[in-house]
């Protein structure tokens, strides 16, 4: 049986090795009905081994930020530089705090690991916690700076881009990442490195995020939305997806009604946005509390 080695190809083309391989006979690979991959995927630079997850996470921040800068230069901004920097700092702090707190609620067994190894402080982060924490952090920053206008619409597409890139890293980490789903007999089931066919939830989510992107672009071009509503729609679509999708994922701590901590956070935030969208659409109502 011939093996197609990702490490060999990468080393030949770019000078580094990848700790993963795609296997099968040459005929199988050519016909496309078998594709096996070793998880987690890593990149080797000499004696240094770097997880692909880390690389794609860094890429998600870098490309998302630069796409935001491109959109701001092209479309303009409702805030000056000082106001935008303050909003970004508030969002980053809120996202960092709540992403970790919600991650520990989802997997409380990692609290002890964090106490024993400070490296776990940067692990167990959740996208849902980051989004909700960022929302709260931005609103606090706006109150402090006296900003009344909604500021989140400019972030929608850069955030989605960053999330899609980051989810590639989650997929390449395999089942050990904790973002893969339950065992399944669906045709989409994949072995994430633990010998079990599971829902590749990161791949599902990339597809959902692409659909949300297209939908938001269409809504923005066809409708005149109040400030902040584009961001609110993004949050509603994504959190609605996570509310349903997380039934397909394992979690360590089950909350009331069989929900996870992430699903409860999604429900609470969706309730908030339902109030935002249904309240009277005066100018002040449209612009206050909607990021």
From TrEMBL:
UniProt GO cellular component terms: plasma membrane
Alphabetical UniProt keywords: Cell membrane, Lipoprotein, Membrane, Transferase, Transmembrane, Transmembrane helix
Record flagged with keyword Ribosomal protein: no
Positions of transmembrane segments: 42-64, 85-105, 117-141, 153-176, 196-216, 228-245, 257-278
GO biological process terms on file: lipoprotein biosynthetic process
Pfam families the UniProt entry points to: LGT
InterPro entries, sorted: Lgt
MF terms in GO: phosphatidylglycerol-prolipoprotein diacylglyceryl transferase activity
Keyword Transmembrane tagged: yes
Protein family per UniProt: Belongs to the Lgt family.
Protein name: Prolipoprotein diacylglyceryl transferase
Biological source species: Candidatus Phycosocius bacilliformis
Biological classification of the source: Bacteria, Pseudomonadati, Pseudomonadota, Alphaproteobacteria, Caulobacterales
This protein's encoding gene: lgt_2
